[in-house]
Amino acid sequence: MSPPLLQVNDLKKHFPVKKGLFQRKSEWVYAVDGVSFEIARGETLSLVGESGCGKSTVGRAILRLFDITSGQVILDGQRIDDAHPSTMRQMRRRVQVVFQDPFSSLNPRMRVRDILAEPIRNFGLAKSAEDLEVRVTALMDTVRLPREALNRRPHEFSGGQRQRIGIARALAAEPELIVCDEAVSALDVSVKAQIVNLLQDLQREFGLALLFISHDLAIVEHMTHRVAVMYLGKMVEVAPRREIFAAPRHPYTRALLSAVPLPEPGAHRNPIILKGDVPSPINPPKGCRFHTRCPLVFDRCRTEEPTLRAVGGEQWVACHLEDGAAVANG
Ligand code: SF4
């Protein structure tokens, strides 16, 4: 088996909270607290969970938009979490991002031509001015936008078209991995489907790996290879799409998936309503972080943290119920 393109080992990112007159650090937000996973070349891994679970922080840590607290991020066998700036330049080319709001991530004063040319120039990918022009026009074809639109500015496009420009800009760097951070969340349903189809086509054409960060499980079900579920800074379940949607094992995953509409008209799942709100990541619960809301909680859950472990095939779950002895203890 070939080594993974991306490996994340025990990633932690804790943000300081500054309080008081002198803005001293007094508390920490445990945004991501020990997350590990891998992505193979050409694979889509979807990172899902409620808002505030830490999924976007994981994406930003991989992009090295900040320093991580501890752990390792390894791209193609090379650590990027503490890479030297000269190595990091090439790493940045290989991992690109598409954000949720293309309008705020595209410079409104720049023409599309310049937006697409910028990464090509920055990474020295064009051999000549002609080559630059060929690449820019080819990118427009690839994301199915008219070449005439190269001289327009972002505000002259619809939301879906702007997201196509964002994807073209990411592709301009010839990446191997694209982090899609809620990349279709702000779009209308029909436009969402078009952008997801485009991402899938591009993945096949260029062998891209995608880290698809989303709270929209209906979209995830349609397009991913594997799913990783996060809750309060921890990963609670990782499994191939078919397994997780057919037979989710973690009580939190079951609740999340129970809210996903079924495609057949009139069909519905039995919704599992979780009590209470997600606790604060400043002071997460001891033991299993989900124990304050879990319908199946028992004594051990309140004191002992479950670890993520294989439960058969490629499915991994962090829950004491997967440990035969634990049920007896309850
Ligand atoms: Fe629920 Fe306990 Fe499993 Fe946590 S470990 S998900 S509280 S049953």
In short:
With 330 residues, the chain is of the alpha/beta class. It contains 11 helices and 12 strands.
What does this entry look like structurally?
The chain has 330 residues and is α/β, with parallel strands linked by helices. The protein has a single domain (6-328), classed as 3-Layer(aba) Sandwich (Rossmann fold). It has 11 helices and 12 strands. The strands form 2 sheets. An 8-stranded mixed β-sheet has the order 6-7-8-3-9-10-12-11, sandwiched between helices. Helix 4 (112-122) crosses helix 5 (129-142). Bound molecules: iron/sulfur cluster (SF4). Residues 250-251, 288, 290-291, 294, 296-297, 301, 306, 319-321 line the site of iron/sulfur cluster.
Helix amount: 25-40%
Which structural class matches the secondary elements? alpha/beta
- Note the overall shape: globular
Number of strands: 12
**Ligands (ions, cofactors included):** iron/sulfur cluster
What is the overall pLDDT average?
92
Topology:
Layout: E1 6-19, E2 24-39, E3 44-48, H1 55-62, E4 70-75, E5 78-79, H2 85-94, E6 95-98, H3 102-105, H4 112-122, H5 129-142, H6 159-172, E7 177-181, H7 189-206, E8 209-214, H8 217-223, E9 226-231, E10 234-240, H9 241-246, H10 251-258, E11 309-310, E12 316-317, H11 324-329
Parallel strand pairs: 3-8, 3-9, 6-7, 7-8
Antiparallel strand pairs: 1-2, 1-4, 4-5, 9-10, 10-12, 11-12
Residues 250-251, 288, 290-291, 294, 296-297, 301, 306, 319-321 line the site of iron/sulfur cluster.
